[in-house]
């Protein structure tokens, strides 16, 4: 089968799975998950095949796999859509396929397939356990199967379709279509347990916040189309004339060039989708969804799509760049990215929920990628995107495994504690070894543990690029964020797995089944090995042993391949110090935390701690600035004043006017004039009759007299006329 | 020799007097008397014309004979009516016989 | 003034005077008697006009039958205190006016007629009006039809008068 046809077919199986599960196999859990996992397996297979061919192709950057069809008829041509696999989308396809497959497999176990139906489980609420009686008559609480099992697989199937469609598309429009489909699915899946009010609030928050970004992105797409007449990647981003023209035309807005304005508008879409400050508020709340969803959204697919898109449009963003000075969009990106990295990392320090830490960590790492792109480190950003997907997915699935284990303990002990609070955990290393080791690998990758983790290589490259291009502010900010990252990661690992169990529940935690641990292991392998594809050439000792395949492969996507930087020891030392130092500090601070004890950093930080814990009060600020006014506009302004007051008022006034007009017509025209004239005629006839009837006296002599008088008169008249006139 | 005009004036006067009697008298029988006078004036008129204008023909006299018969019949019926009314309403005053009024 | 004219004038005066009395006297019986006189005068006029048969017929029919009938009717419809009331209605001057107008109108119209002053044609000697009249009344070419119809009318009047005046006895 030709590669192009294969690429067209890749997004299809999950979509079909969605429809089939929704329409037909809804009731059967086994059939639904088989169809879902099978479909994603097919897509994975196709993706691997395509990737292999892409790997083997020479000059893929100049001759990518592409194919397009006429879709939207225009006046004398058509808007074409199609598929494009160049090096960037090939590596993206690789990690997307793997992570999605792992998440699907994980979900089977996460939603407790094979377990009995719960005692009080209802669709819309998380399962709460079933009571079973064993042969000895003891009653145990065991985890129960998710009531909406098939629905979950349908939704994540649609989600997978959206991501695949985004990755293989060759133009911004179908990319946007995939983008929006994922937005919809994140809405559906964050609020998967729609019975919980917090989930409902979170799903709306996620959708609306990303929507804000999407509006700007759509404006950018429209502007781009009107400026160039096309949305095709190859025609815009690999076309120097188009780019220079866009860089030279002014947009008339704040002195930006067309390229600058479009770049900024499209970047805003990424701010929303990849949860950068200031549109970061939805991502932590999105933890309301089931953990596979969090992994899907926050690691494998959705947030990665945001970064993928800005990486894709990098030529546009950097158009007009002269001799290493950053263009306006790039400066903005560097600022937003670096700021978000530090900002989110600081908040993660004070979070107690295991998933929330990872959420803020995601924001922080995405900030890294965007900052990297902002300073022009194209390959580094793409590299970090790939490695981050693997280890973040690993961390999220691992946290889901931890939560599952804790829930086992909750069911066993019957205690009402939050299974997601790290301060209720501890000592899980002994109870859940596989989870522990894989989580450790993931955590180290996140912190950038040297050499053996993928995160080290990608993070180091970003820091090196920042240092090498002389971007001191970015360098220092990212280094600070790195130290915080290592610190809170070790804090998380120590609190969760090391030491002694702090609650009964943690004591009774149990390892999760193979459907959940196998994906963890596989992802851990990638978390370790993925970095080795991108070892820089000039790295001491090992550089040059293996060719920096990633750099040359992905770099060839651009028209001019980015050059490699000379090796500099300072960024390397910095990343070593921050990583190892942060990890050590975290371990030392948290290893002695006892049950019921407060967070050790609470006292040293003082008031700063509550600021961090409350996420710098941004949610409250947005509520005050945006949400309350929106409610006011909807309720008071639109509903009371406009709808009931103005519109209904107009209607009432019209009705009143019509009534008055009608009354006026009735009382002043109809009754007096029309009725009056009718009555007048009748009355006149009556009165005339009454007046005249006196003639009829019944007396014959009178009649005769009258008759004779009349005859005499007429006779005289006629005689006069006949005889004298003619 | 009497000119025709005298007869005509005479019959006209008689006719007018009869008319006066019809219109002015209260008693129904008196009205009928007036009617008789009028009929007689007509007869005189007819015969005068016959004698003065067409004495060779006999149409005038024949007409007058018919008028006689009609007058007689009319008086008979009229008086029968008056008597019948008198029996019912006990009056023969023309003004009091006014049931056919508004 | 030839003698015939004098006779005529006297007759006319009598007739008109009697007629005036007919329409003015209070007592109805007197009025009937005056009517008889008037009718007699008419008969005389017929004689002057050489219509002898008509004169006799006048006397017989009018005076002999109709007047008597009227007197009968007067007597049958007499009320006791009736004669006291004036016999002329309130509107007598309207009637008088109309009568006068009628008379004047007739006279004037007749006066404008050319044949108003026609002289008396000579009476032809072979003329026998009576026989002629008799023949005319039964001749098919003449006036038999009016004659027969008049007789039917008389019959109808006879029966009609009987019916009208028939006194219905109770029971």
Overview of the molecule:
The complex is a heterotrimer of chains A (726), B (102) and C (171). Chain A has 29 helices and four strands. By secondary structure, chain A is mainly alpha-helical. Among the domains of chain A are: 335-372 and 383-602, no CATH class; 621-695. In chain A, the strands form two sheets. Chain A has a two-stranded antiparallel ribbon. Chain B is mostly helical. Chain B has a single domain, classed as Helix Hairpins. The mean pLDDT of chain B is 89. Chain C is an all-alpha fold and 171 residues long. Chain C has helices at residues 3-24, 28-48, 52-76, 92-112, 129-138, 144-165. In chain C, helix 1 runs antiparallel to helix 2 (28-48) and helix 2 packs antiparallel against helix 3 (52-76).
Task: Give a quick set of tags describing it.
heterotrimer; A: 726 residues; mainly alpha; two-stranded antiparallel sheet; two-stranded antiparallel ribbon; 29 helices; 69% helix; B: 102 residues; Helix Hairpins; 3 helices; 76% helix
Class from helix and strand fractions of chain A:
mainly alpha
Estimated radius of gyration of chain C? 21 Å
Q: What does the main sheet of chain C amount to?
A: none
**Total E-strand runs of chain A:** 4
Coarse shape of chain A = elongated
Distance between the termini of chain C: 69 Å
Structural class of chain C: mainly alpha
Helix fraction of chain C by DSSP (H/I, runs of at least 4): over 70%
Query: How many domains would you count in the coordinates of chain C?
Result: 2
Assembly state (oligomeric): heterotrimer
Q: If you average the pLDDT of chain A, what whole number results?
A: 88
